[in-house]
Amino acid sequence: MLKRAFSFILIICLLLTPALTVSAYEPTGIQITANAAMLVSLDTDEVLYEKNADQKVYPASITKIMTTLLILESSRYNPDAKIAMTEEALDLISGTGSSVSLLKAGEEITQLDLVYMVLMSSYGDCSLLAAMYYGDSVDNFVNMMNTRATELGLSGTHYENPIGLHHEENYTTARDTYTLTKYALQNETFKTVCESTRHTVTTSLSGNRVLSTTNLLQDNTTSYYYTYAKGVKTGYTDEAGRCLVSTASYNGYNYACILFGCPPNEKKHFTESAELYRWAFKNFEFKKVADTANPVAEIGVDLSLDTDFVSLYVEEGFTSVLPKDADDSTISIVTNPVSEKVDAPIKKGQKLGTADIIYAEQKIGTVNLIANEDIQKSALLTALRAVKNFFTSSYMKVVYILIVLAIVVFIIAVIKLNTKKSKQRKIKYVPYNDKKQ
Question: Do 57 and 172 form a contact (C-beta atoms < 8 A)?
Answer without folding.
Answer: yes
